[in-house]
Specification:
The chain has 234 residues and is an alpha/beta fold. It contains nine helices and eight strands. It is globular. 44% of the residues are buried.
């Protein structure tokens, strides 16, 4: 199967929450493709972020402002099943979770899809890919963490490239329509290398939001254009 169109997915974890709607509107207008929504519970990971109410508010703002982009919700919570319907109702398009956070991975994937969302699994740096052997028929996205989850601004873990290559082979062998996403330490300087390993969906938080200090609506144009130019080289 041919590689999918590259998607740039800014992580709103690094946005300004006092003006979240504006930041999202501006970054999508600058050429980003997906809104990546990081959910942490101070239990599965040692940090606490945002929940369904913020997702619903953002979705309503995007609809009102005509901002068209999928919302990609990454659940770093345990247990995970209870919160899935809430995010589906709040406007999520993709919902991904960590297999360690579910007692029954297959059932959690089925639950996401039954709620009308696309489903995915997330793999931490030390998590085995073995789970994929049994559930590829229920997966729309595979997310490889290139940092340990919990905080933005961490350095990229190079071993993630080997994991990407392995998952790319599995996706191609399956013949299924599955996106391959990466999250953690992705920036202009390494995005081409990540793409060359088989990735097609690139989460970047501080690598995008941290590069823009100006108050104008075009403040993300330069960094996203630089990412596109690097991806064209891969």
């Amino acid at each position: 199967m041919s590689k999918k169109e590259n998607w740039i997915a800014p992580s709103i974890l690094s946005a300004d929450f006092a003006q979240l709607g504006k930041d999202v509107k501006d970054v999508i207008a600058s050429g980003a493709d997906v809104v990546h929504f990081d959910v942490m519970d101070n239990h599965y990971v040692p940090n606490l972020t945002i929940g369904p109410l913020v997702c619903e508010s953002l979705k309503n703002f995007m609809d009102k402002e005509g901002v068209k982009a999928p919302i990609d919700v990454h659940l770093m919570v345990k247990p995970v099943d209870r919160i899935i319907p809430d995010f589906a109702s709040a406007g999520a398009d993709y919902i991904t979770f960590h297999p360690e956070a579910s007692e029954h991975v297959d059932r959690s994937l089925q639950l996401i899809q039954a709620e009308g969302c696309k489903a995915g699994l997330v793999f931490n740096p030390a998590t085995s890919l073995n789970y994929l052997e049994h559930v590829m028929d229920k997966i729309d996205m595979i997310l490889i963490m290139s940092v340990n989850p919990g905080f933005g601004g961490q350095a990229f873990i190079p071993q993630a490239l080997e994991k990407l290559k392995a998952v790319r082979q599995m996706i191609d062998a399956s013949g299924r329509d599955i996106r391959l996403e990466i999250d953690g330490g992705v920036k202009v300087e390494n995005i081409a290398e990540v793409a060359a390993a088989g990735c097609d969906t690139f989460v970047s938080g501080s690598g995008i939001f941290g590069k823009a200090n100006a108050a104008d609506a075009n403040r993300y144009d330069t960094v996203i254009q630089q990412m596109r130019e690097e991806l064209a080289k891969a």
